[in-house]
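Hi R.,

Here's the chain you asked about this morning:
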Amino acid sequence: MPTDMLDTEQLLHETPESLAGEESLKGHATLTPELLRQMNAYWRAANYVSVGQIYLYDNPLLKEPLKLEHVKPLVVSHWGTTPGQNFIYVHLNRIIKKYDLNMFYIAGPGHGGPAIVGNVYLEGTWSEVYPNVTQDEAGLKKLFKQFSFPGGISSHVAPTTPGSIHEGGELGYSLSHAFGAAFDNPDLIVACVIGDGEAETASLATSWQSNKFLDPRTDGAVLPILHLNGYKISNPTVLARVEHEELDQFLRGCGWTPYFVEGDEPEAMHELMATTIDVAIEDIHRFQNNARKGNDTTRPRWPMIVLKSPKGWTGPKVVDGLQIEGTFRSHQVPLLVDPAHPDHVKLLEAWMKSYKAEELFDENGRLNAELAELAPEGNRRMGANPHANGGILLRDLDMPDFHDHAVTVNSPGAVEVEDTLVLGSFLRDVAKLNQDKRNFRVFGPDETVSNLLQAVFEVTNRQWDAREYSNDEFLSPEGRVLDSMLSENQCEGWLEGYLLTGRHGLFNSYEAFIRIVDSMFSQHAKWLKVCRELPWRRDISSLNYLLASHVWQQDHNGFTHQDPGFLDHVINKKADIVRCYLPADANCLLSVFDHCLRSRNYVNVVVAGKHALPQWLTMEQAVVHCTEGAGIWQWASNDQNDEPDVVMGCCGDTPTLEILAAVSILREHLPALKIRVVNVVDLMKLQPSTEHPHGLTERDYDSLFTKDKHIIFGFHGYPWLIHRLTYARTNRNLHVRGYKEEGTITTPFDMRVQNDLDRFHLVMDVVDRVPNLGSKGDYLKQQMQDKLIEHKHYIDAHGEDMPEIRNWKWSATK
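And here is the predicted structure, written out as tokens:
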């Protein structure tokens, strides 16, 4: 610890309780009496505006006695966290002005909307974004009415809130988002307020470790503010009930330097907070200067603040004989004001009048000039910070030509390649071309090498600021890859924060374990959906998932690693947000991923294998096919001059392999059978065009799949997803084979056999459904049944698939 900080740190750590009292502040005053008075008044204004948003429908300045008809008929909100967040916001405003900081605010506690909306309004940003909400009495009335009201805004921090990149509807990801925003933003400080209830979530508990991945030379800083107000909805919080020493040791053990601000007396708390936050900012600047100018490679023990204040601070203390302030009862609406509680109207009026609005707003309802001057100006206002509307800062990636990475395919299936290995060299070139821009990163939970993307390490490293050993690989304080933490939640949160502040990236994961971030994906998709409806929100780069190590080849991992259900989850979201691609080979994968990295405001899910599989299309063919999204593979079909007898459809690399193998068998044994092979890359093509912008029209769908022929469809995921996407189509003769929750540690082909997706079952499906195949069909079906038994005996004896499976090559006829 630097010697010049010893006295202050001892003061702030060793006797934190005493610091809340006036005696402890003597000789350490940071605020002049006048500034303290003004800041306290600004805090009162923020609290007043917050309460008004929660309750009032009319009479915003209480110029007449409050009546029940002035109160919203349905009051829905959360008060408990609000005054503490107002307190923090006021102090961040001061520190921004004092140090000319580039800073914005992430509100982690759930449903703290009144605080952030109110402060963005007081600083003037809200009225600039929403000019109809003016800074006067009429504007206050609109501000109050719109909050948690039909046709208005939600009760939590949302995309509608200027200055926000973090949805308040789900807890746990605030700190991960904050670090994602700080990466590659060396001048930015992200103030991240963490609720003590939120701190109990697994994702937040993990994200304390993010400080091991922050480079003080090239990244910005995160200032966590743990808000201990003691309670959740109806229970105490753990961190508020442990001993001070235990909490201090926990946070220090996570690599932080915690500074404590504790108390409930406003003036003393203002002074203590001001002193503390000055120390924290000076710590940050010192660490950064030492690293950037002094080449100090020591990992900083970054500062953080623990704010312990009463829940529902300054609100009703006792209602109907029950204590409210400082208890769980203040978490949501601390005071019921409705026809069943008419006497509470006076209590609400007294509460609001305790803030003395007549001292804060002029006769017209505008914040007094001396208070308005406390807020930063222009883009220094946290509600107007460009990083919180990342599309403003977004720059296109410099993209390599993906054709340069093409796999040479002289004939379909003649060569086998690991698809993701090919993609890795393309991503290497993306990383190399954008090194100077510092706007592209690869994220993943320790799976970049496992998913065969290791070519990126030819030009960059894993970012890692903790201890290194001589036998480590690709670790550096500065790198373009963040995959050294085994947490899908953390990687997802980092990437979302990175994208939301105007950069690009992708998340590579094992397919089965991407399910860990199901809810995070949902929140991001909802965020994008709302942003599309807000003209002032700029487009951001798409959230790109690469799902490898997929269900169909798990080798030693087995059943636990076999789950393709993320696709089902993704398709639940709005059609104009989600895209799902299942390229059949490496050239298709290159074409798809080039498109995804260039796209905006989508969630793109790409599923690709890492094991060697046959390659089907030249790059020129792949580009055409991927542009169409679905099409007939004429080289595999023999129905060009006739109506097909059967359509063999496929989506995904492994189903494509098995469908083509089945077609090869059918064309050998039943040469008169007319077969059409249709491959689908873009899963959303199967939906009607009325349901998804990528969907095929009825006419185009029928031109591929016919109106009445039997369709045998091999699908990568759960079969019922295909039925769900095509339920409204004319052709009802659809028979889908896919994953049906059968699996274990077994051979790749046996996985397909266990789920009836193998070539032998597919051939039998055709025989069972196509009429008039006669005895040839009967004998072929018997052969396929024999083959299944032969397969089982072979793998039991040899532990690998039969040579005819391992060495199979495409051939339409022998």
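One quick note: The two ends are 77 Å apart (CA to CA).

Cheers,
M.
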